[in-house]
Amino acid sequence: MSFKDTYRIGIYEKAMPQELTWRERLLFAAEAGFDFLEMSIDETDMRISRLEWSDEQIDELLKTQLETGIFIESICLSAQRRYPLGSLKWEKEAKDLLRKAVVFAKKMGVRLIQLQGYDCYYEEKSDDTTKERFYRNLEEETMYAAAHGIVLGLETMENDFMNTIEKAMYSVNRVNSPYLNVYPDIGNIYNGTDDVIEDIAKGRGHIVAAHLKETVPGVFREVPYGEGQVDFPSSIAQLYCQGIRRYVAEFWYTGEPNWREIVKTNRQFIDMQFLQAEQLLQGRTM
Q: pTM value?
């Protein structure tokens, strides 16, 4: 088996225009060389409303996946910016959101939900109270996810609360459940610590997948691949030697007319990073 056959790379839904049908989105993801798609449940009412889909709507999308041969295999629950688990004002809504996402994932056949590491976001200021509320609610909702067989993975964010794997591991160790792990954003970690490789090592045994995203100092989104600070080969090599075999290319469609070409070029860029990671792994033991 070749190195390339040992891992799988998905594409973030928002890398493609919103107006595409699911069939179009899935077929193009496969055409561009991706192995699966990660669905976004973001802050918009439109995407949050997916959690209210009828069984018939879900069944239709399941059939479309079978027909196209490419599947939605994870969910990024960025709607938690709107309803964070540590919020006093939105506590009930935050817990309801996560529970709906767990049930939705179960019906969709999705086994992994990426959670946002926010104790609060818009209206409230992070403090010991919001953090404790976050930990308490996270434990409660992890137990709910466990009952449904859904794994939760904490994303490393752009905030001081959870911008590194080391900080995410505090929550993982505190909850202490196989159903709560870390699903890091590598680009964000480069803005959170000076020693990214050591930080990745601190998640050993608890990293379920990784977002491969480009960043520059102080900028966390919409940085084109190859124009930022992220050393993808060394990060991938460290993740790979820890047994990580699932990755998602996270980038955004921002209205470019040549978006199809951009997606395919980005896939080629990611392939090159894995080739260089393979060379690193062959040259030394990490």
A: 0.96
